[in-house]
Fold Protein-glutamate methylesterase/protein-glutamine glutaminase.
Amino acid sequence: MMKQYGVLVVDDSSFMRRCISLIIEKDPQFFIIGIARNGLDAIEKIQRLKPDIVTLDVEMPEMDGISALKEIMKTCPVPVVMLSNHTEDGTRTALKALELGAIDIFLKGSLVGENIKEETINDFLSKLKVIADSSKVQKNKEDSNADLENIKYDKQQINCGEKLMKRELLIIGCSTGGPSALQSILPRFPKDLCRPVIVIQHMPPGFTGPLAERFDTICNLHVKEVENGDILERGKIYIAPAGFQTLLEKSQDNSIVFKVEDMKNVDSLYKPSINVTLNSAAPIFKDKLVSVILTGMGNDGLAGCQNVKNNNGYVIVEAEESCIVYGMPKVVFEAGLADSQVALSDMFETIMLNL
């Protein structure tokens, strides 16, 4: 018998509640268990109706999405997906929601309106299903600053001397659940980490810039969203921009340059795609490249990790026990491409040992 999931739709707009409900009910595995008009209404109905998953509006009267999310995670934890308007305030608030335990973000404009792509709707429904099925809820994180006091790593391994460098580049790929996972890794890199770090995180357009700004405030290293023509520099964290593909190229003076392109010819649902970036980096860095695949749905990263291994690079994947969605790490592991598979709690130390 096909498993079914009850969804609570939370939005102050009756029009939006209706639209979102109709989209969700296109999939026979979903049924709308209830609707809520604001955060207070949502908390009461979550406690009473016990939904499998909640779609939560960011901006609402009486109790907004952030206040509601804090209370939900404290009193009645359930997987929550945020629905945001494409505004500066909406984007920053949605990112805050990810820090507090929401699992994913979708733009309302990509789901409701004219010229909506069927593949976007299918991706939305597929992610809801995977999230509901995983039944994993992230802990409430009031303080996103990492505890830097108890970090153990070999000081010699972060000496910039060429002889002590095992690797020259770290690329981290992630999707659903990724921002929270990144939060447990990126702030822990020490100031004297003499390697560049590139992050490929599946997100809606407009979110990666604020994500980079947020991490820049809590990380020891400078964090920036990649721009076309940027030179890859040691000791910086680069976040690939959503809506484009990010590649690496070697210039005539041997510097490594970022190319940020639309690449409509690339057959990938994801922009940025982990495969695209890894495929460009692997032939350049060969055995000096470390690739990390964290939580996420689908198989983006599989072909890229194959390329990394073909060039003698090192691949680390997150273990199922800590993944919000054990999709991307699973396919890499089952393909026999992972040199290490570790839980998120051990990921930073494993990365440091192999840089």
Remarks:
- The chain has twelve helices and 14 strands.
- The domain at 155-353 is CATH 3.40.50.180 (Rossmann fold).
- The two ends are 48 Å apart (CA to CA).
